[in-house]
Each structure stands twice: as structure tokens, then as C-alpha cells.
Input
Amino acid sequence: MTFHTENDTLHVREVQQLGAANSSDIRDQVRAAFSPSLKNIHFDLSNTDFLDSCGLGCLVALHKTAAAHGGSLRLLNPRPQVQQLLQLTRMDRVFEVAKG
Amino acid sequence: MLPESPSPQPPRSLELDLSCDLAQVQPAAASVHRFLVQHGLPERELMQCQLALVEACNNAIQNSAVAHGSRNTEHRPAAETANVEHGKRSQEQNRIQVAVTVEREPQAVEIRITDHSRGFDLPQQVTLPLPEAESGRGLFLIHEVMDSVAYTHAPAGNELVMRKRLNCGTR
Output
């Protein structure tokens, strides 16, 4: 996983798996990198080939973290199977999903 | 020139044993993916079976960890699981194993998960939790992607049986 800060946004990239085995760890690492001056989290899912309901819970937690800073979580470039999970759980209506 | 021999038939079923370690779920899902690819499952059904398997195994392992008072199973590499107090815990670990059987039938795939956890009550109807909930979507996903889900809770072991009907009759 890599982090990159641009203006008031934390960019999270290179997450291959986001599941029960690592979702709490990922959540904690992102929160640790999300300094008080930041507002938004852009989570790039283009390399994520495994997402389960625990990984989804991690994204919900980060959505709340960003909201507490007055910002939002944006999911970028989800693969089809990840996109399908978001649709099945209606979370595609909660998260901002975009290409970029 | 010898005639080309027919490719061997893939086995009809796949059996996997998992210990109480969430890190084993993704490799198990990868094995099931390979098995179902061998059987020519369409991509959509393949992904759905894999998702149901992952959620069911996560549930079984998390319930087992609670039932047996294990510490959080996250972030514990398989090697560590094998080494920590191996002698003392091996008997318990054998007991709390999760067994997975995937069977390819002519018109369906059946996935059977057996565990020895305290089990849970499978509701008649599973609804989505509120959007802000950080957990509780696993059972919903299983019901959403599989055609039938049955759960039996017994002292000898719990069994979750999930079936996915296939439109194509091909192997």
C-alpha cells in the first residue's frame, strides 16, 4: 500500500487485497496517514482483486473518517468484481465511485 | 502420428481444510476459483461462488475464534499459527478446523462448509444493515448470490450448504 498527499487529499494506492485478514490493518494505516489538515481520501482500487464484506466495512470506516474532517471518500477504478460487490450491497450509492 | 488423447476430466469435487486463521481464506478461494475454472463455469457464477465461499469461511473462522476464546485472528501469519504453543494447541486447532467441499453437479455447484464453532441462527430473511454499519453484510451477500442456503447447527458440527444453479448444462 502506498500513500501520497496532494492538497487536502490523501491518495491510497496499491492495495491488492482488502479482506477479513487485513482490513483492520489497512484501516488503521490509512487513518494514521490521514493528518488533521487533510479532508478527502481517494482510494484507488485498480489493483484490488479481492474485496469481501470486511473490506467493505473498512471502506465504510474510512468514509466516516473523511466525513469527520468535512471531506469524503472517493473510490477510483474498481475492477468489475469489486464493482459488483458495491452494487450488491448498494454501497455504490453511498460512496463516490469514479475513474481517474 | 498418434491421435491426440482426450484431456483428463477434472475431479468432480474439491475438499479443503482450513485452520482458525483468516489468512487461509483467500488462498482457499483461489483454489476454488481454479477448480471452477477447470469446470468451465461462466465468470459471473464463478465470482459469485467465490464470494459466497469467502463470506462463509470468514463467518465460520470468526465464530470459531470467539467460541474458543482465541485472540483476534487478524494479522496472524499461518506460520505463526503453526508455531505458537503448537503442542498445547494442536488438539484444539484440529477441532476447530473448517472443512470446505465444493461439488460440481451437472446443473449446479454445491459448496459445503463444516465447522465446530458455537454456530449462529440463520434468519429466514437477511436484510442489509444500515449504510454506516461496518459489519453484518456477509450473510446478505451469501443469500444474494446463491440460489439456496441451508444451515444446520449440531453438537457434532455445523454445516452450511450453499447451492448455485447453472443455466448451462455443460461441464
Q: What stands out?
A: The first strand of chain B starts at residue 13 and ends at 18. Chain B touches chain A through 27 residues (CB under 8 Å). The first helix of chain B runs from residue 25 to 38. The two ends of chain B are 29 Å apart (CA to CA).
